Amino acid sequence: MNVTIFGSGYVGLVTGACLAEVGNHVLCVDVDQRKIDILNNDGVPIYEPGLEDLIRKNRAAGRLAFTTDPAQGIAHGLFQFIAVGTPPDEDGSADLRHVLGVARTIGEHINGYRIVVDKSTVPVGTADRVAETIREAQAARGTQHEVDVVSNPEFLKEGAAIEDFMRPDRVVVGTDNPRTGELLRALYAPFNRNHDRVMVMDIRSAELTKYAANAMLATKISFMNELSNIAEAVGADIEQVRLGIGSDPRIGYQFIYPGCGYGGSCFPKDVRALERTAQGIDYRPDLLQAVEAVNDRQKDVLFRKIDARFDGALAGRTIALWGLAFKPNTDDMREASSRRLMEQLWAAGARVRAYDPVAAEETRRIYGEREDLTLVDEQMAALDGADALAIVTEWAQFRSPDFDAIKAKLGTPVVFDGRNIYDPAQVAAAGLDYVSIGRRPVPATGR
Ligand SMILES: NC(=O)c1ccc[n+]([C@@H]2O[C@H](COP(=O)([O-])OP(=O)(O)OC[C@H]3O[C@@H](n4cnc5c(N)ncnc54)[C@H](O)[C@@H]3O)[C@@H](O)[C@H]2O)c1
Ligand SMILES: O=c1ccn([C@@H]2O[C@H](COP(=O)(O)OP(=O)(O)O[C@H]3O[C@H](CO)[C@@H](O)[C@H](O)[C@H]3O)[C@@H](O)[C@H]2O)c(=O)[nH]1
């Protein structure tokens, strides 16, 4: 089938590459000339494992192409996917500027029946606004080609995006036209080998399902972060509690890892946008507001622990950071906990020496050259001249470091672990004090 995808970011590129991989002809459209140039030169503008190979292979096979020309895109696909960003507006609601911009462009160029598939995360009612925008743009030029607008939210996780897309837990399709539902079912059939994962439902339920999923996952994390603060204060170990509750299949082990807060381009903005939706219907979203507030506070936890350890005298100190991206296996820094920590350290007069396997360039793009930030390209080099080490992102390569070498390098022998990736006894045995989340600090015991 011929597919057009507006937006060549995390979702658009993964969707495009995976749909091409199963035999469709995909044309990706983006307004960002720089991104399209990189893609047309066999590069990939983001870091996502496996994506570069998949794009290169499908481009070479003639099934995947990139352009900045929307007219070409609209002429190409029966399916017109919208996968552009929906960043938070000033009041926290989803900013639909890009989504409706694409809708307008489709209306300006459409020359026959099209299925417009909304993959961006958008509030309930957006499909109606997309349809209306296309209708208005068509009316302005005196055409009225038939259009079906479908809600098809995306549930992939960055860092595992291709796997998630290729083997989805579910594919939600919101439509009021059974025939369109069947066409989407056919498009997704190659990802449905074991059993049918396509769920066709009404449009508004599909739109809300996306927010419900993210809000539920964010709630699990904030719940655990709140409990971690309680555990720490009462002398319990949150990691034991995590195992204790996760063993109940009604609770499960997934998404109950405590840490220094959730980040990324989805949970923070989607929880907020759902709150705004609730407020728009005069419903007070108490639970969602608490989830957000707990997360906001949790992002301060590492700084508070570091500040306390140095008696509030951080000026002139150097703190080493391992991990900058909001989670492992991505270079995405949107709402990353590392940003809050760095900004608090800088405000307190400290310097940061940081290492991340892939996010240094993005960090440099955000903060520019600053005298109090040094980005190094090797993890142990972050410790040179540092007073303490903080783990912010749980990249696999940080999991079994040489603790003796860490001890030898640090001015003050202390490790702050924002993701609880170490065995406290092992760290302490190397002569390092160990401060983590939801567990009592463990003083160095020495060898
Ligand atoms: N990143 C994720 O893990 C993820 C997962 C599921 C859903 N989502 C949702 O999917 C949407 C896209 O997210 P993303 O992370 O891929 O965004 P992104 O910022 O990485 O990419 C969006 C792209 O859209 C392009 N764009 C903007 N206006 C355009 C236009 N008029 N025509 C063509 N391209 C245009 C931008 O230049 C950019 O390249 C958001 O609504 C997001 O909430 C994201
Ligand atoms: O037990 C956990 C699990 C995650 N996190 C944090 O939560 C954030 C989000 O992680 P994750 O969900 O793995 O990454 P995303 O790529 O943001 O994916 C989420 O957001 C996407 C965009 O909407 C959805 O498509 C995905 O299903 C949903 O998992 C990260 O900061 C993690 O460190 C925790 O603190 N504890």
TrEMBL record:
Pathway: Nucleotide-sugar biosynthesis; UDP-alpha-D-glucuronate biosynthesis; UDP-alpha-D-glucuronate from UDP-alpha-D-glucose: step 1/1. NAD(+) binds at residues 30, 35, 86, 121, 158, 269, 334. The keyword Oxidoreductase applies. One of its GO terms (biological process) is polysaccharide biosynthetic process. Its EC number is 1.1.1.22. The keyword Oxidoreductase applies. It comes from the Bacteria. Keywords: NAD, Oxidoreductase. Residues 320-424 form the UDP-glucose/GDP-mannose dehydrogenase C-terminal domain. The active site is at residue 266. It catalyses: UDP-alpha-D-glucose + 2 NAD(+) + H2O = UDP-alpha-D-glucuronate + 2 NADH + 3 H(+). Coiled coil: none annotated. Substrate binds at residues 155-158, 210, 255-259, 263, 327. GO terms for molecular function: NAD binding; UDP-glucose 6-dehydrogenase activity. Catalyzes the conversion of UDP-glucose into UDP-glucuronate, one of the precursors of teichuronic acid. Belongs to the UDP-glucose/GDP-mannose dehydrogenase family. This is UDP-glucose 6-dehydrogenase. It comes from Thiohalocapsa marina.
